[in-house]
């Protein structure tokens, strides 16, 4: 595929049936799906200098494939999502495992049968595990906040330990809030798992890593005769919105627009900025084969950073004598700073602000916000793919 840097002077929006803003999962899935399904000619505009959004990976100077914007671990329960993405890559058999460093002891998270024995000792850990099984059943996920509500001293003992040693400090570092201040959709993402499976996604039927990396997956997805990709293009420089129309390059645009960026930035934050958390990534290449036993270790009771990722443990790369690790430091996102808005801070106040921005585009029948930023949601990449496939279905059906 050919990627153009910037827009040529001859760029004509009317030559395209659809303009997609953003070359991450949401935008790229829509571009490919609608090009194939409706025969649309599509222009993809990407603000960054590369495709693949936050999933972008590259080979560093030491020859190690790294994820520039933090680790992306593929997993999904959706057969449709898996079938679609599998058209553009083969998958490794990688099964993601995470350990928590709790006062120097590494324990599996989600907290499980093994974790209980490590935390409470063999006998007491087994006793508590049996109580969990009797209460909830085996191979069940129980959100920590739900467990804390049970009026049982044994369950309270487990809940208090996990809350204080796995969630509290880690959550405050990650979100700048305590768990009880955070939307349940977020705290429920890392439950207690009642079972022996120590994978991070124990029940997801489709897991792995793209065999040649995420960037190559996106190159294949966007490689279509009807798709043109332009990077280094900020849509805000060529878009103008009013109550009834979207103008592109000064002319009312009659085609479809798929928008995957932040809605508040499209309107210059005139109602106020939507809050996000961002991350500073600190990469380090070490002169050793392996630094830690799994891809990710969370630091839940110590350190200023939230976790360390070791990429070779995830990709399966063999690079003797060297390994690259990455530490993540979370803090508040500042609009206009060049930082990346990673995680929407979802609460009633922020959601209400988002809805006010959304109201401004709801009368634009050809304008479709989709994805983590445009929908102000805490999405995994498979959920973003699913949302983009659904939107593509709607656009295709309207033009059938």
Relevant terms:
400 residues, alpha/beta, 7-stranded mixed beta sheet, 6-stranded parallel beta sheet, Rossmann fold, 12 helices
Question: What would CATH call the class of the domain at 3-55 and 212-269 and 344-398?
Answer: Alpha Beta
How many strands? 22
Low-confidence stretches: none
CATH topology description of the domain at 3-55 and 212-269 and 344-398: Rossmann fold
Q: Any idea what the CATH superfamily of the domain at 3-55 and 212-269 and 344-398 is called?
A: NAD(P)-binding Rossmann-like Domain
Helical residues, percent:
25-40%
The proportion of strand residues reads 15-25%
Quote the average pLDDT.
94
Placed side by side, the strands forming the largest sheet appear as: 8-7-18-19-20-17-21
Q: How would a crystallographer describe the biggest sheet?
A: 7 strands, mixed
Alpha-beta classification: alpha/beta
Shape: globular
- Architecture of the domain at 3-55 and 212-269 and 344-398, according to CATH? 3-Layer(aba) Sandwich
Total helical segments: 12
Tell me the Rg in angstroms.
23 Å
- End-to-end separation in angstroms reads 28 Å
Domain UDP-galactopyranose mutase C-terminal: 166-378
Organism: Enorma shizhengliae
Protein name: UDP-galactopyranose mutase
GO molecular function: flavin adenine dinucleotide binding; UDP-galactopyranose mutase activity
